[in-house]
Design brief:
2 domains; 17 helices; iron
Length: about 400
């Protein structure tokens, strides 16, 4: 089931933000995230805020969802008022499975964002999709509506691995869907992989990488399997039906990904993401990683504007009811102080290939950077030019490096 939201102070009923937050809206870029919380079935590893038809209950449905999102967009425009963002640089529709909504509804949501704040002429517009949830016809509609990028949840090319993850698509469907997206004119196509699933062999992951490379996509995300409490996969491991993931195996898989993707012309730009040139990098994720602003639409969606972060109520029914009453769907929020903002900046920027300026660290952090350099975790040449940039070994130990750079 979906994970638990953090605690925080109450969001005003009207969703209003402090004047200090409004004064800097969009100064570092502005994006919109749209959460679509529907799935045809629940994958065994997933604790995202998503719901199957059986889990939804009454009061929420796919049919009226686009109108509810547009109602939050109207509220968002009212909150920002006379200080709207200069433009929307990126839009990312995630889930769940956004493409369970009719393509025309996804088009209406994008049009609403454009009418409200205006899309930049070069805006990146992404939707996530399960491979079995798109067709050439739906992809053509999305492309015509202004979507420029699609991210397909491939996870693996091995049928046995897909079965353990409770994925419903066939082993070859993700690659076929990627080809269909390119055929209708999508500028950028991403395939997601998960590695370290119990029972996955080295040759299984190698075959997945081979298929990704053969698909000719310009972006690949690869993540180690994380076993979240409360998921079906966690329950199976607790009962001893499946072994827990092995860290050494995960490291081997990561090295295999770096070798195969690098040889195919895709370069890492974030620890878990590779792109074929700068233009293929996911600009929306870079917006998150560099501390820019975004408004999150949808149940459970998180937003960040001017150092204020808030999150919406989780259940689609509660979300719809609040908006129908003219109230903000925000559940709670937090105002980031200098220490919290610094910690997040270090955590996120260090994961990027561009790294972190050494002068952003305090003395204790710089001492930690010197230790990481001596341990071969930071690039010596980049360090000499004033930046902390992870080596390949450093990427494998990124969390440990971060801990050493923070108080």
């Amino acid at each position: 089931m979906p994970g638990v939201l953090p605690e925080g102070e109450s969001v005003p009923v009207d969703g209003s933000l402090p004047p200090t937050a409004l004064r800097a809206v969009g100064a570092r870029g502005f994006g919109v995230y749209v959460h679509v919380p529907f799935c045809a079935s629940r994958c065994g590893y997933c604790d995202f805020n998503t719901y199957t038809a059986a889990e939804l209950g009454g009061g929420a449905s796919r049919e009226g969802y686009a109108d509810t999102v547009l109602a939050e967009l109207t509220l968002a425009a009212r909150v920002l008022g006379d200080t709207p963002p200069p433009r929307v640089d990126t839009v990312f529709v995630g889930g769940g499975t956004p493409t369970l909504l009719p393509a025309d509804d996804l088009a209406r949501i994008l049009d609403g964002i454009d009418r409200t704040w205006g899309l930049a002429a070069d805006a990146e517009v992404t939707t996530e999709a399960n491979p079995e949830s798109v067709t050439p016809e739906s992809l053509k509609t999305l492309r015509a509506a202004g979507y420029t990028r699609i991210s397909l949840g491939m996870q693996s090319a091995a049928p046995g691995v897909l079965a353990v993850l409770d994925r419903k698509h066939s082993a070859g469907r993700a690659v076929a869907a990627a080809g269909e997206a390119r055929d209708v004119g999508f500028d950028h196509v991403n395939l997601d992989l998960i590695y370290g699933t119990p029972g996955e062999r080295a040759e299984d992951f190698a075959a997945s990488l081979d298929q990704v490379v053969a698909a000719g996509v310009d972006h690949v995300s690869a993540y180690a399997l994380i076993v979240e409490d409360g998921t079906r996969l966690a329950a199976r491991m607790q009962r001893g039906e499946l072994p827990y993931p092995d860290d050494d195996v995960a490291a081997d898989r990561y090295l295999a990904a770096e070798a195969a993707l690098g040889a195919a012309g895709l370069s890492w730009y974030e620890v878990s993401n590779w792109a074929r040139g700068d233009a293929a990098r996911c600009r929306h994720n870079l917006l998150y990683w560099t501390g820019a602003d975004w408004w999150g639409l949808g149940p459970g969606a998180h937003s960040h504007v001017g150092g204020v972060r808030w999150w919406n109520v989780k259940h689609p029914t509660a979300y719809a009811r609040r908006l129908a009453a003219g109230q903000s769907p925000g559940l709670a929020r937090e105002v980031l102080g200098p220490d919290e903002a610094h910690m997040e900046d270090v955590m996120l920027r260090l994961r990027l290939a561009s790294g972190l300026p050494l002068d952003a660290l305090d003395e204790a952090g710089r001492a930690g950077a010197r230790r990481a350099l001596a341990d071969g975790l930071l690039h010596p040449d980049r360090y000499a030019s004033g930046r902390a940039v992870l080596t390949l070994r450093g990427r494998l130990l990124a969390d440990a490096v971060v801990r050493d750079l923070l108080p």
